[in-house]
Specification:
With about 240 residues, this protein is of the alpha/beta class. Helix content is about 35%, strand content about 30%. The chain is built from eight helices and eleven strands. The protein binds adenosine-5'-triphosphate (ATP).
Length: about 240
């Protein structure tokens, strides 16, 4: 469903992505792993053009996102939800209004928004918190609201940038379980950038190990095990 082709990204003349090629299949949970600074978050953010690649192509269902007009790109982006390490909720809006936000932007009518907000909050087990404000919630609850917001517009793809890094180990498992649920029950393809190998082993079907702005090795995750073939891959998996 998604193809990244020869993606490069430079910031102020420094190339931080040096030619990323990746194909992500419909329905999989794919991990971007690697050391700090390897380019995981930047690679993830090129997928919805939050970071526009310097060169290369991003194909979503064979459509070239970089070639689209602003209006068409806005529509394509509605197929891609995103969640972040620090949740990025609107603190002055209720939980329900946070989830409603992308639907308002997409021009939904009020009745449809209300029904969809209820559905999404129920999916993440938080309907009873609809009227609360983000600062009244725990970290895990905030991330679940962010997941509800991320799936509100029926995306095909959810991008997750370090989704559990700000959470304690127990809460982390709770969030992982909800990500698994939306993948299985709603068929949403998920791409996760993370350092956290425990979530990768629990959740992902495949991973790309990144090093210095390149995909160093692509690996299958089978029965929560990853068997790298390169020296760097073996060392990384030992220490991670
Ligand atoms: N907006 C930016 N401006 C300048 N440099 C940036 C910007 N965003 C990322 N970089 C640089 O790009 C490189 C890759 O960063 P990125 O955050 O993608 O790595 P990462 O693998 O996700 O690291 P971490 O695990 O620490 O989040 C780093 O050297 C970083 O400093």
């Amino acid at each position: 469903m998604l193809q990244l082709s020869s993606i490069t990204k430079s910031f102020h003349g420094t190339e931080v992505l040096k030619g990323i090629d990746l194909t992500i299949n419909q329905g999989e949970i794919f991990g971007l792993i690697g050391l700090s600074g390897a380019g995981k978050s930047t690679a993830l953010r090129t997928i919805n053009l939050l970071e526009r690649p310097t060169t290369g192509k991003v194909l979503l269902n064979n459509e070239d996102l970089m070639a689209k007009s602003e209006n068409d790109l806005r529509k394509s982006r509605q197929k891609i939800g995103m969640i972040f390490q620090h949740f990025n909720l609107l603190t002055n809006k209720t939980v329900a209004d946070n989830v409603a936000f992308p639907l308002k932007l997409a021009g939904w009518n009020k009745n449809d928004i209300d029904a969809r907000v209820k559905e999404c909050l129920t999916t993440v087990g938080l309907f009873e918190k609809a009227g609360s404000y983000p600062n009244q919630l725990s970290g895990g609850q905030k991330q679940r609201v962010a997941i509800a917001r991320g799936i509100a517009n029926h995306p095909e793809l959810l991008l997750a940038d370090e989704p559990t890094s700000a959470l304690d180990p127990i809460t982390k498992i709770e969030v992982i379980n909800y990500l698994q649920k939306i993948n299985k029950e709603l068929g949403i393809t998920i791409i996760i950038a993370t350092h956290d190998m425990s979530i990768v082993k629990r959740l992902c079907n495949r991973v790309a190990l990144m090093k210095d702005g390149l995909v160093h090795e692509k690996l299958d995750v089978l029965n929560s095990e990853i068997h790298p073939t390169t020296e760097f891959g073996k060392t990384f998996l030992e220490i991670a």
